[in-house]
């Protein structure tokens, strides 16, 4: 065992650090610094730079456009991205449907869809949740009925993140209405511009428009857009959920979040001292930091296991649970730190609104972010579900 | 010892509860907030004139019902149950509390106007650098002839856009955090030189940044003695803190109740989620937090008239506990609701937002634990 | 509403305080101060003084030997007892079987058993739990078979506190083997000196002998020692459990416990300061103290409800849960406070062993007490069971 | 970066695990503790001579296997899984650690004797007034001719009744809490003037109060430089702290596993209690705590060779987390077992006792959070 990076890894770290410094879009940086909501174009500008460099899909196999980095190099890469405060790439194509397609798809599907995911030309969204089926994914009711070489799809999806921008969506639909729960489900790729697809915004507590309802009314989907066998979509869904859970630990990003809390706590005054000198606020930071270290080394141990041939197993639920709790604690501390200035509700920066927000620059997103981040223990399988998974699959009870 | 309410108190609660059930459903509240002024002035008038509610905590000589802290607490609890955005806390508890404490001509003049709903007061005390220290004040009131001239910046003044009067803390002497040199003024909200920047708050109220630019105020705007206002300010803020705790009891009771109702009708894995033991125990823990918040609020309400040190310890014990309960109950309610809990469309999310703001209003849990320790746990 | 005591209540407080000061046995005080285990005679010495004064059963109706004190007077009484560090009276007679007998018993049973409970001449124990039935009390298997005017009892009970001293025990036994769960159970009073009764010690983690196994082999119990109807013993059991839960909050005693922690923390050094000046240790004390205040006022509100005619209901489970958690936290703080001197294992004071314990006087019981107090969230219906009760009976879920 | 064990390390773990499975079942352990000396010396001899285990972390020049911190950690973890009462921590980790650090003739002389099981060392560092501050020392070592004279009282010295040598911290200068003036000595445990009061500990070891009454010790008992011993002491205590964390991983893994097994076979309300969701989630939380303890222990083990400030921050982060995990896992195990968990007759209660003692060994969670903050969170 050793913790140190090898000389080659140190060189790699220098390389990616330099690349980011030289290539990260300047205007994207200012949009972030001022706390604006990011547009589709904001996300894509960075995506396209990475795609051009060939660094857009580090986790993919080389044959499909991956880079062949080692686990350590991927670790360094995500650390550097987070340290430089880069926006994330949208996970729906790169981390979710892409791996499903290259793992379960036909050669034609790979040829048709993977390039658009890598280039960013296709924006993807995920059609999983339904109003009646939250954590109980398998109870979904959206139906796809075979009609010649098409499926006719009817139903409603919800919590569809960024569907307002999407070109394509991957959907779980019921193709056998008589089968039970997880059987009789298929995995369909649906063009979001198809007739019958309607996207309606859901506004969340912080005032954001991130998620949507998606209505599907007699949407015709070519059979060739079904991935894997009919009625076997649950296999893709399970595979994808395990992939989603590892990314969800978000260690590097949370480290950066802790740094931001420290900066706020060094600025905010608490009596005659900066807030960070308040022993109880300091303790909350140190607890957070230590718990984050525990999560980081748990992820590293898990990655080492993967490298040794053990795929991401049900223990990845641990990463989801602890990762999401830590993300929430970071937002709690931010809101606590800003004191009175957590209260003003500011959603300016719209067209024609150039007024400066109320209070210090770091304050006006504290409450909305806190509210919004409650989702992390709910989505991707709620933390209760994750605990059920560990109980059943790891502990065998 | 006696823990029973009087008949009048029971009647106040019932009357108000019925009125709010009729007027303050979630849709009506959302419409008020979306309207031009961000509230419905008719509600305030009705509270004053149809229900006599604004007089509940004032003496009969001033035209009130002769009540006090207990009446404020039970009214705030009912307001909390509908997350009402009425300026009762600012006008009656803080403004009325200060006026009752100093008495005299100004009290005789203003209290009846509070009771009949003509006066709305906002409390301008917080400053950007001050956090929860009530003596951390840079706003100055300089003697100028018979009156004073106000200069400074007050932050996050709830209800200021609606206010007829501002209750302002300012320095008539001393350095920024000195205990001496603090004075309290009740001034006309529209006085020349007051610049407001108004905005909504995340919990549905309206608030302002207020800039005093050479605002001339008359001598009789001073409440109490010049430079010796801090004990008075501490007292009314303690009273307001307990009132907010009472509101929190209402807010969290509804968060708990709404969660119970949702869990009974939401099906997952073939049964109502209220059948899952982990959620059951969480809802039991929510119940226990609500009950203990009620107990602490009762305790602190009954101790508001004790000498300052005992009062402060009791209020801080109460707020420390209630802040944590508000956080736990709010977060648990959202988690149990799942995604639907964090949308704007359901009431539960808005109760959560108010509960979250209550956590830090008049001081975070940590702030109050520390004050409690200073007062009771000497080394 | 008002918090202040009335002049009459203040006079009462003075009266009981004086009585305790003048009558509490001096030798009992030294046994306690030195941390000895208490003997049967230690407990009884104080019991007999209270019995003589007529103050042994404040909660009982006057007609059966109670005093007619108001709820406030009872509150004052328990505060004063705790403040003066008096040993408790054993609850098995006074708080448990006594109320069952005067509520459900025949005139003959009242006449036969109540005087011995009040005088202390009869030491009682409780035969409820069985090895296979912990929190699931109703699954008990001890059998009583009718044989003329006797029952013949066979079975095993466990966790029987202080059975080593007992003259009498009250037992739940199954009288109808075909009835389900809570039906078919009867409530029997068994003379512990009867042939076939065997008491075997269970030594707990701190080394104490408090609890026992009780074996019943062909024990003959006169039918007249059955309280209430045959097969209706569950009614008595439920009644008794509710009574047990209210006492279990132990507010007054925990207040005294917090005072002792403060005293230790003022003595123990932590660097250049007393431990109580360590902000984090201080915070744990203030959290404890505030939570205890919340419990106290919840109990007072509940007592006010009782006084207004609402009997102790299922919300008394709240008092059990919070009361037991607080008792445990007190022992945790004590153990944390004593530092290194929590480790020495000392069960001296036996016959012929007069050696002084290791470390400061308050240290040598810290670890055993901590271990022993884990029981408070387990016995009397575990805290998990209490939460189930609230869920079902209060919340209706 | 690399997180894999070598083949030798895998072999050490397997060999030890098999040996302990054969020799250290709960009944055997109870018998050792109840025996005259409170242990079975044959076990120690076997560990040394049959298994070569005591040499795992020593260099090949000294007759060891050439390992280090990782070997100590995995041996301590295995010992934790049977709550072994062997003096490995005191003899190998602390004594051996100090000897490796200072090297020279004393190391060459004593390390081989540790490896072959002839030397048992106890670490006499704690004093009644000192709590977890390693510099808080009143025991004095006064220069006397070529040697020193020791006077003072050391408390709760684990393994002292079994020891051939004592590793003693003492003041050769400075006032009670000075950083300078601290020295470390390795002395004969039977030297004249050493008075011991022996007793069992709650976690099954033997320990002593040790009184030094004018104990004459030779010059070569001094390890390192006179008066400059604190950094060395801090280092070996850090190494021991991580070793105790590794032990805790073994102890808590067994607490978790024992709880799972019990819950599967214990029936209540007609089903195994492992079917109750609240208990399931608690056992999941226990699992997560154990896993995170392992992660932190790995992290800290790999950082033991970093410069002092980084090493200390890593060790304190580890111990703070592991202390809390030990408490949570231990308490949860007992609560899930119910009454049977707090009797002497089941192993689970004894694992709980050891976990409880680990919480505060070499500093409580609070102590280590504070040290971590001092080192990493400057204002």
CATH architecture of the largest domain in chain A: Up-down Bundle
**Secondary structure tally, helices of chain A:** 12
Which residues of chain B form runs of ≥5 with pLDDT under 50? none
**What fold name stands as the CATH topology of the largest domain in chain A?**
Butyryl-CoA Dehydrogenase, subunit A, domain 3
Mean of pLDDT of chain B = 97
Instruction: Name the poorly predicted regions of chain A.
Output: none
Major sheet strand order of chain B: 1-4-5-8
- Number of individual domains of chain B: 3
| Helix count, DSSP H or I runs of 4 or more residues of chain B | 11
Alpha-carbon Rg of chain B, integer: 21 Å
Which range does the strand content of chain B fall in? 15-25%
Task: Report the end-to-end length of chain A measured between terminal Cα atoms.
Answer: 33 Å
Total count of strands of chain A: 10
Q: How confident is the prediction overall: mean pLDDT of chain A?
A: 92
- Quaternary structure of the protein: heterotetramer
Output the radius of gyration of chain A: 22 Å
Structural class of chain B: alpha+beta
Q: How much helix, percentage-wise, in residues of chain B?
A: 40-55%
GO cellular component, one term (chains A, C): plasma membrane
Organism (chains A, C): Sphingorhabdus wooponensis
InterPro entries (chains A, C): Acyl-CoA_Oxase/DH_mid-dom, Acyl-CoA_Oxase/DH_mid-dom_sf, AcylCo_DH-like_C, AcylCo_DH/oxidase_C, AcylCoA_DH/ox_N, AcylCoA_DH/ox_N_sf, AcylCoA_DH/oxidase_NM_dom_sf, Mycobact_Acyl-CoA_DH
Keywords (chains A, C): FAD, Flavoprotein, Oxidoreductase
């Amino acid at each position: 065992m050793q913790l140190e990076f090898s000389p080659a890894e140190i060189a790699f770290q220098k390389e990616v650090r330099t690349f980011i410094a030289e290539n990260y879009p300047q205007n994207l940086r200012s949009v972030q610094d001022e706390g604006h909501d990011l547009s589709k174009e904001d996300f894509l500008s960075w995506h396209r730079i990475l795609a051009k460099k060939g660094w857009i899909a580090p986790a993919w196999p080389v044959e499909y456009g991956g880079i062949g980095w080692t686990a350590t190099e991927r670790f360094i890469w995500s650390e550097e991205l987070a340290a430089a405060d880069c926006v994330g790439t949208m996970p729906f194509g790169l981390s979710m449907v892409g791996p499903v397609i290259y793992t379960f798809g036909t050669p034609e599907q790979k040829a048709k869809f993977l390039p658009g995911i890598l280039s960013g030309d296709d924006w993807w969204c995920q059609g999983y949740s339904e109003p009646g089926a939250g954590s109980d994914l398998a109870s979904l009711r959206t139906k796809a009925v075979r009609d010649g070489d098409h499926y006719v799809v009817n139903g409603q999806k919800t919590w569809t993140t960024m569907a307002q921008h999407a070109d394509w969506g991957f959907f779980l639909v019921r193709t056998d209405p008589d089968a039970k729960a997880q059987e009789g489900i298929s995995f369909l790729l649906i063009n979001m511009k198809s007739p019958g697809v309607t996207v309606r915004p859901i506004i969340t507590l912080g005032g954001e428009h991130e998620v949507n309802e998606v209505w599907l009314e007699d949407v015709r989907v070519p059979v060739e857009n079904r991935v894997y066998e009919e009625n076997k979509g649950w296999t893709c869904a399970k595979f994808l959920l395990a992939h989603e859970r590892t990314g969800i630990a978000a260690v590097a990003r949370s480290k950066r979040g802790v740094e931001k809390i420290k900066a706020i706590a060094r600025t905010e005054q608490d009596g005659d001292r900066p807030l960070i000198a308040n022993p109880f606020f300091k303790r909350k930071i140190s607890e957070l930091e230590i718990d984050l270290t525990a999560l980081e080394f748990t992820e590293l141990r898990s990655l080492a296991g993967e490298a040794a041939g053990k795929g991401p197993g049900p223990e990845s639920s641990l990463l989801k649970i602890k990762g999401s709790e830590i993300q929430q604690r970071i937002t709690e501390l931010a809101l606590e730190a800003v004191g009175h200035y957590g209260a003003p509700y500011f959603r300016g920066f719209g067209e024609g609104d150039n007024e400066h927000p109320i209070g210090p620059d770091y304050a006006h997103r504290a409450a909305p972010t806190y509210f919004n981040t409650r989702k992390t223990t709910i989505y991707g399988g709620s933390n209760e579900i994750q605990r059920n998974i560990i109980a059943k699959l790891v502990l065998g009870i | 010892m006696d823990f029973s309410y009087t008949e009048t108190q029971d009647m106040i609660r019932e009357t108000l509860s019925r009125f709010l059930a009729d007027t303050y459903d979630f849709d009506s509240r959302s419409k008020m907030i979306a309207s031009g002024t961000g509230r419905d002035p008719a509600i305030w008038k009705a509270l004053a004139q149809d229900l006599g509610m604004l007089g509940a905590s004032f003496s009969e000589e001033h035209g009130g019902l002769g009540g006090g802290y207990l009446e404020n607490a039970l009214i705030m609890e009912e307001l909390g149950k509908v997350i009402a955005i009425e300026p009762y806390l600012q006008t009656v508890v803080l403004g009325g509390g200060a006026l009752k404490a100093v008495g005299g001509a100004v009290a005789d003049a203003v209290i009846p106007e509070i009771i009949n709903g003509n006066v709305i007061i906002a409390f301008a005390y917080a400053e950007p650098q001050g956090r929860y220290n009530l003596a951390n004040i840079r706003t100055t009131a300089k003697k100028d002839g018979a009156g004073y001239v106000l200069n400074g910046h007050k932050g996050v003044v709830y209800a200021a856009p609606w206010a007829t009067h501002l209750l302002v803390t300012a320095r008539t002497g001393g350095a920024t955090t000195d205990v001496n040199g603090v004075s309290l003024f009740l001034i006309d909200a529209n006085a020349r030189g007051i610049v407001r920047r108004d905005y909504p708050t995340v919990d549905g109220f309206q608030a302002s940044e207020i800039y005093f630019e050479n605002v001339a105020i008359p001598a009789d705007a001073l409440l109490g003695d010049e430079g010796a206002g801090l004990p008075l300010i501490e007292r009314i803020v303690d009273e307001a803190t307990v009132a907010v705790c009472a509101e929190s009891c209402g807010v969290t009771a509804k968060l708990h109740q709404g969660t119970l109702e949702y869990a009974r009708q939401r099906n997952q894995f073939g049964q109502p989620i209220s059948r899952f033991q982990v959620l059951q125990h969480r809802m039991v823990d929510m119940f226990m937090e609500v009950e203990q918040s009620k107990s602490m609020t009762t305790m602190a309400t009954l101790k508001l008239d004790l000498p300052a040190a005992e009062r402060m310890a009791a209020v801080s014990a109460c707020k420390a506990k209630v802040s944590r309960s508000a956080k736990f109950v709010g977060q648990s309610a959202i988690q149990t609701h799942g995604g639907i809990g964090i949308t704007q469309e359901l009431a539960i999310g808005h109760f959560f937002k108010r509960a979250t703001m209550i956590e830090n209003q008049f001081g975070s849990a940590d702030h109050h634990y520390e004050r409690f320790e200073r007062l009771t746990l000497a080394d």
